Amino acid sequence: MAVNLPAPRREDLLPVAGVELGWAEAGIRKANRKDLLLLRLAAGATVAGVFTRNRFAAAPVQVCRRHIAGAIRALVVNTGNANAGTGAPGLAAARATCDAVGRLLDIPAAAVLPFSTGVIMEPLPVERLIAGLPAAQQSLAADHWLEAAEAIMTTDTVAKAVSRRVKIGGHSVTITGIAKGAGMIRPDMATMLGFVAMDCRVPQPLLQALTQEVADASFNRITVDGDTSTNDSFVVMATGAGALAIDDAADAALPALRGALTDVARTLAQAIVRDGEGATKFIEVRVEEAGNSQEAAQVAYAVAHSPLVKTAFFASDPNLGRILAAVGNAGIADLDPARVQLYLDDVWVVRDGGRHPDYQEADGQRVMKQSEIVVHLKLGRGTASTRVWTTDFSHDYVSINADYRS
Amino acid sequence: MAVNLPAPRREDLLPVAGVELGWAEAGIRKANRKDLLLLRLAAGATVAGVFTRNRFAAAPVQVCRRHIAGAIRALVVNTGNANAGTGAPGLAAARATCDAVGRLLDIPAAAVLPFSTGVIMEPLPVERLIAGLPAAQQSLAADHWLEAAEAIMTTDTVAKAVSRRVKIGGHSVTITGIAKGAGMIRPDMATMLGFVAMDCRVPQPLLQALTQEVADASFNRITVDGDTSTNDSFVVMATGAGALAIDDAADAALPALRGALTDVARTLAQAIVRDGEGATKFIEVRVEEAGNSQEAAQVAYAVAHSPLVKTAFFASDPNLGRILAAVGNAGIADLDPARVQLYLDDVWVVRDGGRHPDYQEADGQRVMKQSEIVVHLKLGRGTASTRVWTTDFSHDYVSINADYRS
Fold it and tell me: What is the distance in angstroms between the Cα of B46 and the nearest Cα belonging to chain A?
């Protein structure tokens, strides 16, 4: 029951020159489902990534951190098992995966980035993964983005994929990305899994900086349940197969590229929220007039994480005092309640820290019934602002997470 | 459906000399239910309190902070309305309440502490509250602790009250307390509402320090949903009517009194968790070998607040990797996963950061099915430790909070 999130259509997903995708049903956790993705990059691509800050970073994340700045030629992704909390055997399994892909594609193991997603603290059945690789290799093709998006799903109900073709500096650039994620979503400097490819050329150090900036404006601004995964990874690939080449940070074409890439990443990030476990509403928390961007984010996340706020949204109940309680709870020691304004979409609910005298519950009720809602806070402290996207908290969230795995 | 929490029995609740309690059905929010408590203190009592650190502190909390160090003669508590997020009219309503109690009992308004609990951001119907006061006055009696506990309930399913009689320094001391709370529970330097009286004599500044210490070991170590209320208040009253008199912080009888008071406060605090909204399990998160008590609490709360951990407990599913993910997510930048141990009761689950080779899922399953569970973490960083008490996260939590109010 995703919120306003249609499934991607094959014809809308544009191949990116220099990228081929293949998949297999490797039976990692369950039989008869796509659970293995192989992505091959042409020689000359640059790749950058940001990864989870969870201290229990999964084994594949640890391997990715070592490989990422090198000459990457392949990505391999399994679902059904996170290979996290698995200690030294988990690290050996991630390395064995890279070795196997390297042998298969005739590239160095260090040219492979491994990714895993699924249950934490279970041993990765690496022999089944490796046995599935030849089938994935045989299906490699440039127009398999939809199958790739499907192959990385876990509790997702809708595949997440998007393409944009933009003109930058007179050159056509194609950007296509996929992502997965629905729960354990509160990315911190990264996301669940997100992979975006584009056919322009960008030097690796610049691509790394760009990836971080884009993540901060997209995947790092969403939350479903406040839990940061052990496996969050967001990877951007620049194949260099197209005409556009960015030379350095001063390149005049960089802002346009950043804008297009942010558009793709934000669409994918918001798709994760729209498909959030049990979600019935898509909520933007917009915080303005904060003293700095750190406190803007603190307040936005305090609201977005409050179970009481989220259950009120689920019930379409304008019990909006819970939003004030969450703001007061955000850890800003010198917050002056008398300077706080709260709007629900266009309805002014709280003026100067108290209920607006003209506020009618019927107006709050009208907005709460919508499937998309903006919670708009002004703190009266400065000029910093941020936006965070989240969901409500429903019976189905509990069902999904009480049932997942068992 | 509280977890192992029988209703208090009238015969177990001991009167405290110097305290009388009365109640009324004032119709604050709903008719025909006890919603007003009046507590009268004999002259000479000292009173101390700790209050919410939520920046949207309710109007009565603001008044309490001004009055608390003076000569307090009465407490007045209403349910059905929190009088929070109500601005200047809310403050006027809290003051009018103190004025009315003062006139009725012939004491100064500044000798009255007001408390409110219920829905946030609704105007307090102070005229109905004041109209209910005479009935409350007429029912004042020393043996009305059970009715007092009932009069402060909101979403509580069980009244919370406890008594202890202890011998300290050769003198008998009687301590009786009540509390309310089931949701919006993550007290921070305070609790929901907790009121404890004892018949010994303690100077006010010392009582204030004692109250803070006791709160830190009881109400400040529980969480249901991570939301700190606007109205949290924990008040300790020393009537001085008994034989024991504590003179100063060096008094030899102080540690015994602190121990008895902590016992009462912790029993009440744990009762709030046992009655947590939708709770089916009572969970202690015990963190040891932390570098300092701050990081011990950070880790304990990261586990206790994780919706994924809490839904796994609800399902009795030993999906214990979620606990590791929460620990990694606690914000301790230099945590070394390889030094982390995790036990579920007596079952060693994680050794040195990875799944213990001898761990059998059947053992985890056995513990997860219990109604009381200890999550025991060792961080391998130092000698600090803490304990936090919490609940699981169930369908009923969502139902209760989606339905409460509307």
Answer: 29
